[in-house]
Queue: 2 jobs
Job 1
Amino acid sequence: MSADPAALVRLGEVCGVHGIKGWVKVRSFTEPRSNLIAYRDWLLETGGQRRSVHVEDAALAGRNVIAKLEGVDAPELARELVGSIVLVRRAEMPRCAPGEFYWADLEGLEVRSLAGIVLGKVARLIATGANDVIVLAGREGRMIPFIADRIVRQVDLEAGVIVVDWDASFWE
């Protein structure tokens, strides 16, 4: 499960080059986006290969984060990193307050109704603006609003289960 401190968590993706000094532009998956700036040691994954990098400097730039990586001093070197996934070790992330969860910790959990019916597994979560939404794996269009206490009644990371007040007939 992703709550394993040795696990790696995807926090962004290198999506471009910024300037002439080798800075990279990163699409942050954190909320807020600026949280990515707090991490100074990243693993970049490209084509199944991982590379450790140290972030010398970083800042918000529009809808993205820009970062100066140690040893990347030219736009040509930065361009080679475009498409890389930014990973950090789960152990480096702050503990959540009670009732809060990292999305990465919820992915893969089994979703059950109050009646105990298995509805599926969490493939991913998405932010819609109104509320977050659980997307079930292998179930095209099967989504459940992540509204704590009203729809999401319990999240048990140890048991790997999310209990929801939801009926499968809602999708029919």
Note: The two ends are 31 Å apart (CA to CA).
Job 2
Amino acid sequence: MTSDDLTEFGMIPEFIGRLPVLAPLNPLDESTLINILTEPRNALVKQYQKFFEMEGAELEFAPSALSAIAKLALERDTGARGLRSIIESVMLDIQYELPDLEKKGKFVVTEEVVKGLKPLFEKVEVPGEASLQNETKLSA
């Protein structure tokens, strides 16, 4: 990468002139994306595990799930920034349901969960709740 490349990407020349060293950027591979998900102090996996811990539950990501998330980011060509949106879409349902669950326990995110083939948890229909919702709709 040269200073001309940086100018082409929209950086102003005054800023580029202050950069003492230009470093080449290599594309991220699957193992690097998995490290980004798990290694930093504020890694996404650690953030979700802490969220579950605060709710009295445990969260585990299977290695195959981490690999599937990294592959999705590579397929979408979104790199490390795309990891958050992928994990958010996987965790969306449980994120809203977790505080209200009576039995929390341990949740394991697998490759099937990431691909949408299997839910992270089974929703349990509370007897009478569906009829109460129907009554509310009818009376509204």
Note: Residues 94 and 122 are 10 Å apart (CA to CA).
